[in-house]
Design brief:
The structure is a single chain. By secondary structure, the chain is of the alpha/beta class. It has 3 domains: 80 residues, Nucleotidyltransferase, domain 5; 56 residues, Dna Ligase, domain 1 (2-Layer Sandwich), CATH 3.30.1490; 115 residues, ATPase, nucleotide binding domain (Nucleotidyltransferase, domain 5, 2-Layer Sandwich), CATH 3.30.420.40. The protein is built from 9 helices and 13 strands. Strands 11-10-9-12-13 form a 5-stranded mixed β-sheet, with helices on both faces. The protein has a 3-stranded antiparallel β-sheet with strand order 1-2-3. α4 crosses α9 and α6 crosses α7. The longest helix has 25 residues. The radius of gyration is 19 Å and the shape is globular.
Length: 295
């Protein structure tokens, strides 16, 4: 069960992954935070029986940094410590006691191997853990939005082809490129679904043209950096007018662009509201967090 704060609400998603079957979303719901996050979690722990689940949550965008670095030439057990030294110049908080996690970026040939380093202040991680512990909600993992979107994107991949996935949600814009289940690129996008919704028609057109230009530049740069990966298409999940966003990007990108239809890779027979593209986008972080696998 994922328990994810997104602005002034908490999203819950429960996903079952049975061997040989498509993942099934058993629950997907959102709850407004009326008083405080602690109060909302206390109420959800009781009403939704969260004590019965293995729970995961996500750090907020400002609670961590995701940094791409050359892989250190040290044994696996020494990698985190080796990266701490490099991270001192990459983040604006102390790293000596920070939480650090490492994800490999696969490479081919004689290319320099790289890694994603996720670093979060000890105080941020400690506060999340203490909040869940106080409410007696079993917290198995703390993840980040980039990996949540990755978990959804890989379901859409074509064999041995790269996939670009753009998620535009309330307050967030995130582009990922994955291949063979691995995250190769993650980039924050300045435009989000709120900005598109609030803009008039002309302003929205300009924003989408700028978005397409930014995406094209990123894709061109990715092609130069990872020539061994052929990106087959761009999928879009947007809380606001997903069809209109896709149509605008089709006009301005050379890559095939499609709306991400969760029904093509996930089952949710008891949740008809998830047939809506906008509701899918609204829930993508919670669903992605619930798709987390340690395998």
């Amino acid at each position: 069960m994922s328990v994810v704060r997104h602005g002034d609400r908490i999203d819950l998603a429960h996903v079952i992954r049975a061997a040989g079957k498509r993942p099934e979303i058993k629950l997907c719901d959102s709850f407004r935070i009326e008083k405080s996050e602690a109060d909302a979690l206390s109420r959800l722990a009781q009403s939704r029986g969260l004590k019965r689940y293995r729970c995961t949550t996500l750090l907020g965008e400002n609670g961590y940094r995701l940094v791409q670095l050359d892989a250190p030439a040290v044994p696996a057990e020494e990698r985190v410590q080796a990266l701490r030294w490099r991270l001192k110049d990459a983040v604006d908080f102390p790293v000596d006691d920070a939480a650090v996690a490492v994800a490999d970026i696969p490479t081919e040939g004689g290319r320099q191997a790289s890694v994603f380093a996720v670093v979060a202040p000890a105080s941020v991680v400690g506060e999340r853990m203490a909040l869940f512990h106080e409410k007696k909600i079993p917290l198995e993992a703390i993840d980040i939005p980039e990996m949540a979107v990755r978990n959804v994107a890989v379901l859409f991949e074509e064999e041995n082809r790269g996939l670009a996935f753009l998620a535009l949600t309330q307050g967030d814009g995130l582009l990922t490129i994955t291949c063979r289940g691995e995250l190769f690129l993650s980039r924050r996008i300045e435009i989000d679904s709120d900005a598109l919704a609030k803009a008039d028609e002309e302003r929205r057109r300009q924003m989408l043209e700028r978005l397409a230009l930014e995406l094209q530049r990123t894709l061109d740069n990715f092609d130069r950096q990872y020539g061994f990966i052929s990106v087959s298409r761009l999928l879009v999940a947007s809380e606001f007018d997903c069809a209109g966003t896709v149509a605008a990007l089709i006009e301005n990108l050379y890559l095939p662009v499609q709306a991400a239809d969760f029904a093509s890779v996930l089952d949710f027979p008891a949740l008809p509201e998830l047939r809506s593209a906008e509701r899918q986008a609204q829930s993508i972080l919670a669903i992605g967090a619930a798709l987390r696998s340690d395998s």
